[in-house]
Sequence to fold (483 residues):
Amino acid sequence: MALQLLILALSVSTSFAQSQGSTHEGCIHLPIVHSTNQQAFGKRAVQFSLANRSDVAYYAKRRPNPPFGRARKEKVELGTPPQPQFVQLDTGSFELWVNPTCSTAGSFGDAGFCSSVGNFDTAKSSTFQSIGTTKSLRYGIGSANITYVKDDIALPGSSSILKAVQFGVATATEDEFSGILGIGYGLGLTTRYRNFVDELAAQNVTRVKAFTLALGGKDEQEGVIVFGGVDTSKFAGRLARLPIIPAAQSPDGVPRYWVAMQSMTLTPPSLRRKTYSNSTMPVFLDSGSTLTLLPTALVAAVAADFGATTQDSSGFYSVDCALTKVNGTLDFAFEGVTVRVPYKEIIRQSGNQCVLGIMPNPDFVLLGDTFLRSAYVIFDLDNHAVWMTQYTNCGSSPAAVNDSKAFPSLIGTCNLQKAAVNDAASSSSVSTGTPTTVSTGGAAGGAASPSRSSTVSAAGTVTPRRQASIFALAIVVAVGVVS
Ligand SMILES: *[C@@H]1O[C@H](CO)[C@@H](O)[C@H](O)[C@H]1NC(C)=O
Ligand SMILES: *[C@@H]1O[C@H](CO)[C@@H](O)[C@H](O)[C@H]1NC(C)=O
Ligand SMILES: *[C@@H]1O[C@H](CO)[C@@H](O)[C@H](O)[C@H]1NC(C)=O
Ligand SMILES: *[C@@H]1O[C@H](CO)[C@@H](O)[C@H](O)[C@H]1NC(C)=O
Ligand SMILES: *[C@@H]1O[C@H](CO)[C@@H](O)[C@H](O)[C@H]1NC(C)=O
Ligand SMILES: *[C@@H]1O[C@H](CO)[C@@H](O)[C@H](O)[C@H]1NC(C)=O
Fold:
């Protein structure tokens, strides 16, 4: 058989139980498993990765069927047909490859995690075709030397099998602990062959060249991606249309999901909002990056409001973990929509260490997982637009979109109140919540408490190990239009 590329949580939520067994012609919906998910990766792999690496990388795997008992069994059957693999979903790169070299994955913990993502044995596939050409892929962190092959890719929840898809089998990788499913632009823009998203449309598995991403919150440990459709149970009301900035007008000249950010605003519990200067800029949406990367001065201003004035040796701003319990948001405004990211989601926590999930970066301005977990986003490649609103979760109802003209009329079925606040409309009607007693975090703690000071920030922090490698996992630095 073939490579089986999937996305799925072995931890079964009610939503998957409900949708289990049903197929949705015209779309493929796959659960997204967070790398912290012990049921998916095994306790040991996750423990290592938590301590030493990312707590928010996203992997894809097939939906087990049935979801309970058999899921475990499937894991030990890795490498035999069908060959399920975990791959990282990356909107910031363009190609699919599998088989990382686990011995060069980085620390021991990474190697352990790497060995749990699966390995594709081409010799065991009857549909495998060699192409033989090679390529070197470089990412913000790590690299992969691949040899191109073609093989079928089975799709869960669908009777369809993608035939003869071109992808890479790695011959050597550095600092990569899983394969990557690049779902950025493909044929004609960044590759000379049809990438995974192109093939879905070309082989009529999807009717639109579009996919929607809901990474899911930290507490949920999983999310959903719908290729060719939407899940209207993951947002409220209408979506805002943001044109994708053409490569020629984008900051790096690369065809990516660049959109115009209008401003960033802090909404502390006191509701005394503060809009940051110089926060109007193009940003690209990158699920392959754990952190959000922004200009130095802007990050310093945000960090100061979270009580952090200095960076640790890895460049992180340490913040008080108590802020994860504070009812404030960092708000990212775009034309027609504001995505409010709760403190808890913008702060990265590893044990009792907390850092701001935003880093200064001179080269990249991107919104990574620390932003995307709070957004519901349709990547509409037919119209070169992104449709975005606040993420929320009121069930599961993935469905195909038959025509890309339908996007403007999509309506999320969740309760608006709980979710985003499209534009200015509601800011004055928001109630003032209970004042929090947390006394750290500068403005982020809410201006109600004058005793807050900067004494807590950064004091006594131990630099998390290998932090330099936890972010920017899959930012493509150089794009070769080569295959
Ligand atoms: C992983 O992190 C743990 C806890 O910080 C540490 O004891 C261990 O040495 C680390 N392992 C590697 C290989 O860095
Ligand atoms: C990939 O190939 C290039 C050029 O042949 C080589 O310099 C590089 O070391 C290789 N990378 C790995 C991870 O082996
Ligand atoms: C996909 O649908 C189009 C239009 O109906 C058709 O022309 C094409 O042959 C189909 N492709 C495949 C691979 O079935
Ligand atoms: C905003 O950017 C301008 C131009 O680069 C600079 O002069 C100004 O100091 C910046 N403001 C802040 C608050 O960083
Ligand atoms: C999409 O097409 C399918 C099959 O042609 C149809 O059953 C379904 O109702 C359509 N969906 C919408 C929203 O029009
Ligand atoms: C959090 O703050 C918002 C206003 O920003 C308010 O609507 C909500 O009720 C508060 N929630 C809690 C639990 O205090």
